[in-house]
């Protein structure tokens, strides 16, 4: 097996530059590639397009890139937890493409699988379908959606080996799997990195063929976006 391990996040993001398109895994603040996002902030890359379910919160996740006006365009399905996102969108500073959540996932999966496009009923008859090809199948109308084209995909897994095989934990198994292999280069950061051969093949969610670079992450905060508790009796 090819060893995909790199020394750190700096080496993992080699080749990142302005005006690129990035995919970033996660849902809310769950399973986001914290180390990769911090490195993007540090490098101060500009004019980027981010494909992600949402844009984090004001002071964490992709919200950190928004604070520094590094993002030119967001391609997302949910953006309700970020005041700075709302401000930039309403003032025209940020270009936004809102996509039904299932369509977002399938456009990632199509890119991962090598399909150029697919038909979906989601969005037909709404603004989502404006300017897109539509077609009837068995009496039902569908919209043609194209696979994403991205330069880098940044994903976060619980455990991985040096060949790039990945295991996700709990709800962190959200958009991360479908973004693996969906860009020219997939960078995986993991909480635990083990030698090749130490993972049970039956437990692997994503095989290493979909990953080009993997590194051991550190200092994960794993913030909770909305903490809901009930009073004790």
UniProtKB/TrEMBL annotation:
<dbReference type="InterPro" id="IPR004165">
    <property type="entry name" value="CoA_trans_fam_I"/>
</dbReference>
<protein>
    <submittedName>
        <fullName>CoA transferase subunit A</fullName>
    </submittedName>
</protein>
<keyword id="KW-0808">Transferase</keyword>
<dbReference type="GO" id="GO:0016740">
    <property type="term" value="F:transferase activity"/>
</dbReference>
<dbReference type="Pfam" id="PF01144">
    <property type="entry name" value="CoA_trans"/>
</dbReference>
<comment type="similarity">
    <text>Belongs to the 3-oxoacid CoA-transferase subunit A family.</text>
</comment>
<dbReference type="InterPro" id="IPR037171">
    <property type="entry name" value="NagB/RpiA_transferase-like"/>
</dbReference>
<dbReference type="InterPro" id="IPR004163">
    <property type="entry name" value="CoA_transf_BS"/>
</dbReference>
<dbReference type="InterPro" id="IPR012792">
    <property type="entry name" value="3-oxoacid_CoA-transf_A"/>
</dbReference>
């Amino acid at each position: 097996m090819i060893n995909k391990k790199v020394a750190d996040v700096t080496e993992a993001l080699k080749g990142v530059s302005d005006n690129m398109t990035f995919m970033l895994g996660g849902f809310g603040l769950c399973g986001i590639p914290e180390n990769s996002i911090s490195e993007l902030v540090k490098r101060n890359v500009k004019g980027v397009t981010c494909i992600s379910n949402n844009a984090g919160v004001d002071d964490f996740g992709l919200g950190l890139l928004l604070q520094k006006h590094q993002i030119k365009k967001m391609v997302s399905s949910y953006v309700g937890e970020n005041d700075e996102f709302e401000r930039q969108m309403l003032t025209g500073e940020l270009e936004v493409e809102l996509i039904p959540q299932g369509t977002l996932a399938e456009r990632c999966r199509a890119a991962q699988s090598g399909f150029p496009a697919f038909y979906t009923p989601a969005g037909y008859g709404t603004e989502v379908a404006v300017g897109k090809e539509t077609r009837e199948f068995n009496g039902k109308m569908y919209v043609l959606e194209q696979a994403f084209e991205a330069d880098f995909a940044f994903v976060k897994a619980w455990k991985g080996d040096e060949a790039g095989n990945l295991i996700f934990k709990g709800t962190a198994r959200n958009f991360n799997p479908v973004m693996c292999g969906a860009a020219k280069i997939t960078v995986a950061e993991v909480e635990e990195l083990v030698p090749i051969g130490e993972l049970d093949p039956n437990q692997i969610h994503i095989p290493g063929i979909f990953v080009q670079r993997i590194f051991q992450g550190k200092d994960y905060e794993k913030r909770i976006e909305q903490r809901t508790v009930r009073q004790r009796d």
